[in-house]
């Protein structure tokens, strides 16, 4: 599925704006059949929750309904007309007037419907979208829905961020010719100073491709739906120095272009050795963050102003990478990373596959995670579909260098290998060019983990000095070093810290190691960096988290998770300046390691 764009043969209408809105209890049995009742309106793109002050709406569990009228451009007669939603969290049903045209499960990947036969060029239709925010043991991410004495549904889940929902990304109406380009896949490589671009086009008709440089000049061209283009003296896409070629794909009929689509292409290679992560054959050391799509009022709604500002802050602090924790981000984020040379670990929404979280730091689950009542074959099927959609969407982005197929699953439990091995195999089948990883929970050690040997890179989430040895950085340092060396000795693979952090209230200060103070966060991170620099196979550090973010209600979080180096409104804490000094000094190179 190609992202919609305007070309000489395609047109695009953005449907963002203010839509009519209702929750399921406010409507009848067929809310798509007429104008939604009431006067509620909601902004798109944005999560619906924080836009309203009524707690019954903010915390609603179940279906909500979005609706607006849409005018089809009159020039689209004889064109194929498609309706696309960039996401509906966590499931969507789309109606054009009274006709159901699309259904989709999965809250962070796009879906679309060919509506050519149910709309009319120049005409208007009523667009209604039902969005279901419920999570169960067979959804990704999983959760549990219960019904209280008053009949209201209550949602619980094991991931530590708020279950924002709704239409958090853009909605589009676009046109293509009747014979059109359906898909494009590119993989890049190097042959000496030359670059290679292997392409595969899904289209009916005669295909021609043209590769242009950043100035628009033609570099090379080819005929056929599959082939290889050789780029003499190629300029590579590099971390911090992005260079993008443009691949124009055409369907040619009787000498005329029937359809055209353009795809940015970054020529680069990714490899993994026993101790290094290589981009273009050079060792790369990750610095950066786990992030969230999370801002006040918008929730997980994509916002271009925050997109630019967040990347500016990452550039200021010297970060060269981030992980899309814990779900695929809006595609605009990856496009920006492509253009600006930030490296991305792309993660699925498989977070919370760990009932051991309920057992606290013991990691002992009340019931097994991988079981008929927990994460079962249906869960794995949903997980596999999510992987297919993620890779189909993001496979062409040069910024994406690794797939992370889950965050903190119970990889130490019985059943983990049977659950994950087919998913790892599927990921490699779908994309054999990128490494595969899982972000390992603290319960999973080098001795009891059941899937690490299947991975290309060991990614660890560790909180020594916060959840373990709280306030005792000397002891925490001993635990951390023993843990990292055990992983290195056992598996002989590159190790990347994908989470380490400490909750910090801005303005809290102390001359002692007092948790929650800005000094403790700074010293906590510095302790980790001293240990990281001693491990020869260590390839990077991504702090948890870039910015404070909203979580579910509970006594363990006051106003959300405060592990951000920046506040939720992007003000720096003291640790940000310490990280800036370290990371701007490192660049993309690993600090000197010692045995």
TrEMBL record:
Domain Glycoside hydrolase family 2 catalytic: 270-586
UniProt EC number: 3.2.1.31
Gene3D superfamilies: Galactose-binding domain-like, Glycosidases, Immunoglobulins
GO molecular function, one term: carbohydrate binding
The Glycosyl hydrolases family 2 sugar binding domain, residue ranges: 14-177
Domain Glycoside hydrolase family 2 immunoglobulin-like beta-sandwich: residue ranges: 192-268
Main enzyme class: hydrolase
InterPro entries to which the protein is assigned, alphabetical: Beta-gal/glucu_dom_sf, Galactose-bd-like_sf, GH, Glyco_hydro_2, Glyco_hydro_2_cat, Glyco_hydro_2_CS, Glyco_hydro_2_N, Ig-like_fold
Gene Ontology terms describing biological process: carbohydrate metabolic process; glucuronoside catabolic process
Keyword line: Glycosidase, Hydrolase
NCBIfam families according to UniProt: PRK10150.1
PANTHER family: BETA-GLUCURONIDASE
Family of this protein: Belongs to the glycosyl hydrolase 2 family.
Protein name per Swiss-Prot or TrEMBL: Beta-glucuronidase
């Amino acid at each position: 599925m190609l992202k919609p764009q305007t070309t000489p043969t395609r047109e695009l209408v953005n449907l963002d704006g203010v839509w009519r809105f209702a929750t399921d209890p406010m409507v009848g049995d067929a809310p798509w059949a007429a104008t939604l009742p009431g006067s509620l309106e909601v902004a798109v793109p944005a999560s619906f929750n924080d836009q309203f002050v009524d707690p019954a709406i903010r915390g609603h569990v179940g279906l909500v309904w979005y609706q607006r009228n849409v005018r089809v451009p009159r020039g689209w007669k004889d064109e194929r007309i498609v309706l696309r939603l960039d996401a509906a969290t966590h499931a969507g049903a789309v109606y054009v007037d009274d006709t159901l045209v699309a259904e989709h499960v999965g809250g962070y990947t796009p879906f679309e419907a060919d509506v050519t036969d149910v709309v009319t060029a120049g005409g208007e239709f009523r667009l209604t979208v039902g969005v279901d925010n419920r999570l169960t043991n067979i959804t990704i991410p999983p959760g549990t829905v219960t019904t209280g004495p008053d009949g209201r549904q209550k949602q619980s889940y094991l991931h530590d961020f708020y279950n924002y929902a709704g239409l958090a990304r853009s909605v589009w109406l676009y046109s293509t010719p009747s014979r059109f380009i359906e898909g494009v896949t590119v993989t890049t490589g190097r042959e000496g100073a030359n670059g290679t671009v292997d392409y595969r086009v899904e289209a009916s008709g005669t295909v021609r491709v043209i590769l242009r440089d950043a100035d628009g000049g033609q570099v090379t061209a080819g005929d056929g739906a599959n082939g290889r283009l050789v780029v003499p003296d190629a300029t590579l896409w590099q971390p911090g120095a992005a260079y993008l070629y443009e691949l124009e794909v055409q369907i040619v009929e009787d000498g005329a272009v029937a359809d055209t689509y353009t795809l940015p292409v970054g020529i680069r290679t990714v490899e993994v050795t026993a101790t290094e992560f290589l981009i273009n054959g050079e060792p790369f050391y990750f610095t950066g963050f786990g992030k969230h799509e999370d801002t006040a009022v918008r929730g997980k709604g994509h916002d271009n102003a925050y997109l630019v500002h967040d990347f500016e802050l990452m550039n200021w602090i010297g970060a060269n990478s981030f992980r899309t924790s814990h779900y695929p981000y809006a595609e605009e984020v990856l496009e920006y990373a492509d253009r600006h040379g930030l490296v991305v670990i792309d993660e699925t929404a498989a977070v919370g596959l760990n009932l051991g979280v309920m057992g606290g730091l013991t990691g002992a689950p009340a019931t097994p995670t991988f079981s008929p009542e927990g994460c079962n074959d249906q869960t794995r099927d949903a997980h596999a579909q999510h992987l297919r959609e993620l890779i189909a969407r993001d496979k062409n982005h040069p910024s994406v260098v690794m797939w992370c197929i889950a965050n903190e699953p119970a990889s130490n439990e019985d059943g983990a290998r049977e659950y994950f091995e087919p998913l790892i195999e599927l990921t490699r089948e779908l994309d054999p060019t990128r490494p595969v990883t899982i972000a390992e929970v603290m319960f999973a050690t080098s001795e009891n983990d059941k899937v690490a040997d299947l991975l290309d890179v060991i990614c660890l989430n560790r909180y020594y000095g916060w959840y373990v040895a709280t306030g005792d950085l000397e002891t925490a340092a001993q635990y951390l070093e023993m843990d990292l060396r055990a992983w290195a000795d056992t598996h002989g693979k590159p190790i990347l810290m994908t989470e380490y952090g400490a909750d910090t209230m801005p303005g809290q200060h102390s001359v002692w190691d007092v948790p929650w103070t800005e000094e403790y966060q700074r010293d906590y991170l510095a302790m980790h960096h001293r240990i990281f620099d001693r491990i020869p196979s260590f390839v990077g550090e991504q702090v948890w988290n870039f910015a404070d973010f909203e979580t579910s209600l509970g006594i363990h979080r006051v106003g959300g998770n405060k592990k951000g180096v920046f506040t939720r409104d992007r003000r720096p804490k003291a640790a940000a300046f310490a990280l800036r000094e370290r990371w701007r000094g490192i660049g993309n190179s690993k600090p000197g390691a010692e045995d």
